[in-house]
Amino acid sequence: MIRVVLVDDQAVVRAGFRVILEEHGDIEVVAEAADGPSAVAAVGRTHPDVVCMDVRMPGGDGLAATRTITAAGPDAPAVLVVTTFDLDEYVFGALEAGASGFVLKDTEPEDLVDAVRRLAAGQGLVDQSVTRRVIAEFARRGPGAEHVPSTPALVDALTARETDVVQLLARGLSNAEIAAELVVETSTVKSHLGRAMAKIGTRDRLQTVVWAYQQGVVPRV
After folding, report:
1. DSSP letters of 21-68?
2. Which parts of the chain register pLDDT below 70?
3. Are 217 and 155 in contact (CB under 8 A)?
4. Which pLDDT value is given to residue 89?
5. Where are the beta strands (DSSP E) in the chain?
6. Is 86 helix (H, G, I), strand (E, B) or coil?
7. In the prediction, which pLDDT does 218 show?
8. Which fold, 151-214?
9. pLDDT of res. 132
10. How far is the CA of 200 from the CAs of 96, 154, 219, in angstroms?
11. CATH superfamily, with its number, for domain 2-129
């Protein structure tokens, strides 16, 4: 059973999402919250697998809540940002704060369910129509977001081949494309990526991409 907390300042939105998600036998909505502080409290009480987070809430900051929730370490729930705004600045802030993906509020119901399942399984997700643009924006910004600490020891801990894999991942390549680029098996790419993620402490592919750009592992374009 996938345990979900819904966070949105509009009760009608939360009600709609609850209906969509609980139509499926493998998903249970365990709590709702209308602002960031309430979301943090709800997560502490219920220990969900996924938090569906609205980041634009007049009653409290969804970005701060996302940062607090994801800072709990490997046992923290994955945060799925559900937003009205395609590539809104708040989306980038949420991804930098540790969110594992985002979908738009007008997404199809089955896509919302799929996103929740993917995040629960440890697969970061960005709406496929904008994946490349998200990566391009992080590439344009380059390293050094003010609230992101530099971690040169973690960068240095990566082997040369792990660094190659992370760089190619951050450029938007799939495992198969990375394997072709490096002339190795796809299983080898998965192994290198898994070891790299364990070393740097990222939970999924998306957060690995964000980390790579924040730390300057990928040359700025």
Report:
1. HHTSTTEEEEEEESSHHHHHHHHHHH--SEEEE-S--TTS-HHHHHHH
2. 60, 86-88, 126-133, 139, 141-150, 219-221
3. yes
4. 72
5. 2-7, 27-33, 50-53, 78-83, 101-104, 125-126
6. coil
7. 79
8. Arc Repressor Mutant, subunit A (1.10.10)
9. 65
10. 15, 6, 18
11. Response regulator (3.40.50.2300)
